[in-house]
Amino acid sequence: MVISLKHSKYIYFFFLSASSLYSIDLKQITIENKYLEPSFISIDQESQIDKINLAEKISNSVMVNQSSLPTHSSIISIRGNNFKATDYYEDGLPLYKTIHGYTDISMYRANDTQISINPGGGQGVYAPSATGGEILLNSKKVKSGFNAEVFGTLSTNDTYLNIAASQKSNNWYVKFDFNTYNSDSYKLSNSFETTEIQQDKNRVNADKKQFDGSLKLGVDISANSKLSFKVSHLESDFGVPIQVYDEPSNPFNENANYTRVEDKALTDYWLFYDYKGSDVEVSFRAYYDKYQDTFDFYTSPEFETLLFPSSTYNDSRVGSIVSLKYKNTQTQSSKLSFRVDRDRHEQDINADNKSENYEMMNYSLAYMYENRMIKSLLLRASAEYKNQDSKKAYQFSENESNYDDNSALSAQLNGYYKLDERQNYYMTIAHKNRFASLGEIYQVFPWDQPNTEINPEYSDSMEVGANWKLLYDSIIDMSVYYNSVKDMILYEDNAYRNIDEATIKGFEFHLYNYSFESNEIEFSYAYCDARDNRGEKIVQTPSSKLFLQDNIEINSQLSYIASYLYSSSRDDIYNSQRYTLDGYGLADMELSYTPITAFNVKVGVKNLLDENWEYAHGFASMGRSFFASLKYEY
User: Fold this and answer.
1) Using an 8 Å Cβ cutoff, are 261 and 282 in contact?
2) Is 223 left (phi over 0), alpha (psi -120 to 50) or beta?
3) CATH code of 398's domain
4) pTM for the complete prediction?
5) Phi-psi region for residue 80, left (φ > 0), alpha (ψ -120 to 50) or beta?
């Protein structure tokens, strides 16, 4: 690991702030809740510093690389894999993916969920998991009686408010959740040198407004079966920040066009059913999602004159998943899952008064087998058959489209060995496929070319890991992985093609230490070598990431957190030109005060050292910001 002298002062800041309180006599805490199954990483939201949406909540994990698309959507890549290869689940229900094949995780606030990351080495929710892994959101248990919570945060860049309430009796419950977010702009670092396009420190065209809410009803049909229904709705509109450099690779260097995503809306209707008997478990999930947005290009920041005709996207998804888990014997169990869904995309172009329609059907059948051969050895095996069938494509007849009845097979084998109460080991091998999305097959944008002969990309993966509980109240998680991806789907010459192969290898190390009373220390480091068959680095993938955090309980009412995230340099491609982005280090601090159990106030600063940094070439990120938050529970 190499850390430049540029960041040495940041590490000095962290250890100075963390070590200054070690001498205080505090109550020793337990570490049993940190002793987790290998290959899964749980996100402790309570110890995070002013993280609002799902993208922010998982960004400090060293295995996760966060970025942003031109549409201002937040995306992540796990271990350098394609961001479209990651699956997201809430209580076993897959989150909505756009026509382009990704989930915009900036939309999800995840206030009432427990978050865990399966980087690929663990068994999937319904099927084999490797390549891009999974992000799992599991709802927290509803408390009896009436409960309410109000949480608000105000920073120098934005405001956020959350109101939640629930009522639970013996066999039913109702939950309500509402969020609103507003940001007129955000400030860049004072170290940022202004450009012709970005002429001051207030980020150009970076406003965002969003509100969302949900209502969930649940009932216990019997002692063994539960039924629930959830409806949620989100609306937002925002400007899309543009590339800040006035250079030949920037299409806006002569006239900075201003782009907005207007009237963005997502409505979800979800149904959950679970039955749990002594030897049999049945799970059923059904979902219907409606998505809409309008993507407009303007000629000036006054947003009055359109550069191109307005275009509105109306998408929908409907589907269901049923799974059956049963015990073969006392030491063996099986799980059978079947999923089917239909994705539709409709694009209305105002100038031409026409509508472009696309439709895709997806099917999958998966089998998972588990065998605890001896008390200390657990084996898991799984296989999944998938089929993707194009049913409708604008300007294509059935005979013209070659993308029909595309199928693939995935498989995974896991072995977990528990040597004693202090040592766990595991090994996994996997073969995984990813189908092209509708947006990768057909020409959604007028400048794109369709490719109806595109093949699924597939990967072969291996991972070995261990979990050790050491003396002096310490836990170590470590994993080593290797992933070979073939037929990668990449964008080149205005079309998506199978044009590349890649090798992704690396290791991850996590140390959790509780030797000092009422003091939790985390040290995490990840190294990733991700390259295509030409030796070029996979873009937006740093070779090294490091995370340090110290969480100190000063007394029963007052606590303090300091954290530091370092990311090494990374490559990026903008308009077919490759760039190298500088590494960066972000230091955050927070002081939390709880005068009574139901009330909490926090104040702090993010990017304390005002680092000038960017996820992608020409897209400068936030500088230093101060925040204060209040939380009241009833």
Assistant:
1) no
2) alpha
3) 2.40.170.20
4) 0.90
5) left
Residue 253 to residue 196: CA distance in whole angstroms:
8
How many domains does the structure of the chain reveal?
A: 1
148's enclosing H/E stretch is strand 145-155
Q: From residue 584, how far is each of 126, 225, 565 by CA, in Å?
A: 38, 50, 8
Distance CA 282, CA 264 (A): 36
Per residue in 1-29, pLDDT (tens digit) is 333 434 444 433 333 343 333 333 333 33
Instruction: Tokens for 438, please give them.
Output: 């509708």
List the structure tokens of 372. Answer: 């605890």
Burial class (CB in 10 A: 0-12, 13-18, 19+), 535: exposed
pLDDT tens digits, residue range 58-113?
989 999 998 877 667 888 999 988 889 999 999 999 999 988 889 999 888 777 88
Residues with Cβ within 8 Å of 197's Cβ and at least 6 positions away in sequence, in order, are: 204, 242, 243, 244, 245, 246, 250, 252, 253, 256
Distance from C-alpha of 371 to C-alpha of 392, rounded to nearest angstrom: 43
Residue 54: which domain range? 5-633
Q: Which residue matches tokens 């169990």?
A: 333
Report the largest interatomic distance among the alpha carbons of the chain, rounded to a whole angstrom.
77
Q: What DSSP letter does each residue of 152-207 carry, written as one string?
A: EEEESS-EEEEEEEEEE-SSEEEEEEEEEEEES--BBPTTPPP-SS--SSBPTT--
CA–CA gap between residue 86 and residue 104 (Å, rounded): 12
Radius of gyration of the chain (CA): 25
Which residues are registered as beta bridge partners of 362? 341, 388
